[in-house]
C-alpha cells in the first residue's frame, strides 16, 4: 500500500510540473519571450529548490525501506575485505554525490536569470583545477591499490589442505562432484557424456568409482574450499552472493575460486533472524529460457556434520553402473551357459 501511495504522489508531482510548464508557455505568448524566459527560470528555480529536500528524503527513505532486502554480512573471510572496500567507496562517492547534488539544486535557484543581475564570465582557475584533479586522483589511487592488494590475496593459490569440489553448469541446473575416500576426482571426457553419465566420467579410471554427485552443496566452516567451475554447454556464472563469490563458468576452460566459509547455516539464521534462511548457488549469467531455474541449495556445517553427510552419499558409479561384484556374477553366468552349449 505504501508503494502505491508513493507512486501516486510522484505522478501527481509530475502532473503539476507539466501543468505549470504549459501555463508558462501560454503566458509567454502574452508577455513576450524575454519576460517569459525570466518567469520560467524563476519557476524552475523554485521547483528545484523544493525538489531538493524531497530528493534526499526519498533516498534515505528508500534505503531504510528496502534495507531488509540487502545482503547480510559476508559469510566468507574474503567477503569481509570486499564489503569494507565497497563501504569505503560508497562513503567517499556518497559525500561527493550529496555535495554536488546540493550545489546543483541550490545554484539553479540562486543564479537564475533576474533583473539587475549579470552572469560573470569565469574562463579558468588553474589552482582550482589543479586541486579538483589531485584530490580525486589521490582517493582513486588509494582505492585501486588497496583493491589490488586484496584481489591478489583473494585469487592466491588454494592451500594444500583445501577441500576440492567440482561444480558444472548446464542448461538448466548445476552438477556438483565431490571426491570419495581417495580424496581425488576421477578423469572426465566430454565425449562420454550421455543421459546416464552427465559429466562424462571415464569409468576406466578407478578414481571415478567413489566420486559423489549430490543434489546440494555442503561446505565446512573455517575450511578453505576450492571450487573447480565448468560448463557443459553455454556460458554460466557461478554465483554465491552470501559468500561474495562470483566466477564465470566457461565451456572448455575450467575456472577456480577458493574461499573459506565463516558462518554455518545455523549461524546465519541467527544473524539474519530468519529461521528459514538458506544459502543458495545461482547462475548470474543469462543462459537461456529457463535461466531462472539454475539454483542449488548450499549448506555450511561443522566438520563432523560434513563427514556424516558425505558418508551417507552413494557414489555415482554405483547408481549409474552395475557394482563390480554384480558385473563379475553376470560374466560368470554367461560363461556357464556357453559351456553347457
Question: What this model shows, in words?
Answer:
The protein has 341 residues and is an alpha+beta fold. The protein has a domain at 163-322: Cupredoxins -  blue copper proteins (Immunoglobulin-like). The protein has helices at 2-31, 33-65, 77-110, 126-154, 265-272, 303-312, 316-320, 324-340; strands at 163-170, 173-177, 217-220, 225-231, 236-240, 245-249, 255-259, 279-283, 295-301. The strands form two sheets. A five-stranded mixed sheet has the order 3-9-8-5-6. A four-stranded mixed sheet has the order 2-1-4-7, with no helix packed on it. A hairpin with a 4-residue loop joins strand 5 and strand 6 (245-249). Helix 1 packs antiparallel against helix 2 (33-65) and helix 2 (33-65) runs antiparallel to helix 3. It is elongated.
Write a concise synopsis of the structure shown.
The protein is of the alpha+beta class. The protein has helices at 2-31, 33-65, 77-110, 126-154, 265-272, 303-312, 316-320, 324-340, and strands at residues 163-170, 173-177, 217-220, 225-231, 236-240, 245-249, 255-259, 279-283, 295-301.
